[in-house]
Design a protein that fits this description.
The structure is a single chain. It is built from no helices and 5 strands. By secondary structure, the protein is mainly beta. It has one domain (about 5-105): Beta Barrel (OB fold (Dihydrolipoamide Acetyltransferase, E2P)). β2 (about 25-40) and β3 (about 45-55) form a beta hairpin. The two termini are about 25 Å apart.
């Protein structure tokens, strides 16, 4: 049986950092996704989750240089966890999305998404 590691996100870019790695452009950026619901008292709540993204410009990932804070993005990728020892000696881990498909969504474009 084939195993699957795939994530799809539609959200808003927070911070973004780009740099050249070899002959390709790489971007590390954060994406915020929101989930709206009502709590037990019927009050609206918006739960925001932040995701760390790493993308290399290539076949499915174009326009990396146009990513900026506030840009809406739709992306597909895979989850990757890295473990390391911090400067204080504590074991830490970070989970990020390695992006393999990225689309920049123009402002004001209404996106219909079904689960």
């Amino acid at each position: 049986m084939e195993q699957i590691n795939r994530i799809e996100l539609l959200g808003t870019v927070g911070s973004v950092r780009t740099q050249k790695v070899g002959d390709r452009l790489m971007a590390k950026f954060s994406v915020a996704t929101n989930r709206a619901y009502k709590n037990r008292d019927g009050e609206p709540v918006i739960d925001t989750q932040w995701h760390n993204i790493t993308a290399f410009e290539g076949r499915g990932v174009k326009d990396i240089g146009q990513i900026e804070k506030g840009t809406t993005v739709h992306l597909f990728g895979r989850l990757q966890t890295q473990r390391f020892t911090g400067s204080d000696g504590a074991e830490r881990s970070i989970t990020e999305v390695i992006c393999n498909s990225l689309e920049l969504i123009p402002d004001g474009e209404n996106i219909q998404y079904e689960m």
